[in-house]
Amino acid sequence: MNIETLIIGAGAAGMMCAAHAGPNVLVVDHAKAPGEKIRISGGGRCNFTNLHTEPANFISQNKHFCKSALAGYTQWDFIGLVDHYGIGWHEKTLGQLFCDISAKDIITMLRTEMDKAKAQLWLQTAVGEISHDGNHFRVALIKDGKSTTVNARHLVVACGGKSIPKMGATGLGYQIAMQFGLPIIDPRPALVPLTFADEKFKPLAGVATQARVQAGHASFDEAILFTHRGLSGPAILQASSYWELGEAISINLSPTAALFAALKTQRQSNGRRAVTTILAQYLPARLVEHLTPDLGLVGNLADQSDARLAEVCRALENWNVTPTGSEGYRTAEVTKGGVDTDALSSKTMMAKDVPGLYFIGECVDVTGWLGGYNFQWAWSSGWAAGQAIKAA
């Protein structure tokens, strides 16, 4: 079977590429349905992009690599496509855009775009041996127990990373990259809850509060959530992409820096009340109880000097904890690392040393922040590869 382009992976990037890659395109995926990660994202409503998308929202060994694709196909371009299809959407916080009704609307839109481009889709199809003769890629595909050999001028790898294996993630993209000599930046779970071996936060499971969380050089002001295994919530997920095993993260439980002034004011009117009772007006009561032994919180508020209140506030604003691990790929929203961008063209996503071989989406060493950025990278990188293939 001879075709122009074979795309491995019917996720966000793969379907986007198929819609723009020109004629005679075949997309294959081992799943039963396309866009499974789209379907489950955003609580079923798909956080499909972010109004504030810019290169600074992405992590990569080469921080400049994503600029070309993001500029070529922007968040406004995708919003325009969504609007063209009459899909209602709304902004939540921090520029995050969600479908009003269902993530399935995005999948239907992409499938319609593929149909317009007359791209074929084979589901429940496994990829076997891949070879390249210098002009064409020869790929064995197994569908319904039968093997078909496809010859394609262009091969696009869009099968994601290792995150959420129950959705079918396998790391196949890295295997293909290594077969053709492309280096890999060590993959690791990202946007993932952090764990503690001693289950120190188990008594706080379900407690949430606003905080500023810092890991490495990055900090995020959003909610944190205590779990049976450790810490989660948007601020923790964001910080996890910058956290390294063995390092502490710093949590500021008073990110507005107004707690000291508030406690001094309270001391004048409620000085006879326990300091823990007053603190529980600003932080979850169970969290205050948990921190009481470490902070030495005893006595009434009136008993606390300015120096003592300042000491307590400094401790709450610089609470350092050291995770022992993360929940891993099982719950990680994305995979950090992947195909080394030095081996790819930033304009076309094609491998520099293997003409016709493209890598797009999550399998590339470009990882977005939480909040729709990774989907925008899928749209932008898929579009860039599609445009390059169509022009070839």
Task: Please describe what this structure looks like.
Helix 8 packs across helix 11. Strands 1, 2, 7, 8, 9, 10 and 20 form a 7-stranded mixed β-sheet that branches. The chain has a 7-stranded antiparallel β-sheet with strand order 17-16-13-14-15-12-18. Strand 14 and strand 15 form a beta hairpin. It is of the alpha+beta class and 392 residues long. The chain is built from 12 helices and 21 strands.
Distinctive features:
seven-stranded mixed sheet; 12 helices; alpha+beta; 392 residues; single chain; seven-stranded antiparallel sheet; 30% helix
From the alpha carbons, calculate the radius of gyration and give it in angstroms.
24 Å
Distance between the termini: 20 Å
Largest sheet features: 7 strands, mixed
- Helical/strand content category: alpha+beta
**Total number of β-strand segments?**
21
Overall spatial form? elongated
The proportion of strand residues reads 25-35%
Low-pLDDT regions: none
Helix share, percent: 25-40%
Number of helices, where a helix is a run of at least 4 consecutive DSSP H or I residues? 12
